């Protein structure tokens, strides 16, 4: 699953779909809060998550909240 956050993340989602990624596996989130909710709903024990973003996205907050849940 690709979880793209924010307006610039939408460009990544568009490119992934154009490259052949299944639309149902490409998820667009408006902000980190929405990303946390989706991750918590999707993650299962043993899953791995790769986060990529600029420091201004504060993705470390997403990690912290998901780990706490």
Question: Could you name the key traits of this structure?
Answer:
single chain; globular; two-stranded parallel ribbon; mainly alpha; 12% strand; 69 residues
Largest sheet: 2 strands, parallel
Detail the poorly predicted runs: none
Q: Can you count the helices? A: 3
The outline comes out as: globular
Question: What is the helix fraction of residues, given as a range?
Answer: 40-55%
The chain-level mean pLDDT equals: 93
Count all strands and give the number: 2
Query: Structural class, from helix and strand content?
Result: mainly alpha
For the largest sheet, list the strands in their spatial order: 1-2
H/E topology pattern: EHEHH
Work out the strand percent. 5-15%
Radius of gyration: 12 Å
> How widely separated are the two ends?
20 Å
Description:
By secondary structure, the chain is mostly helical. The chain is 49% helix and 12% strand. The chain has helices at 6-18, 32-42, 59-68, and strands at 2-5, 26-29. It has a two-stranded parallel sheet with strand order 1-2. α2 runs parallel beside α3.
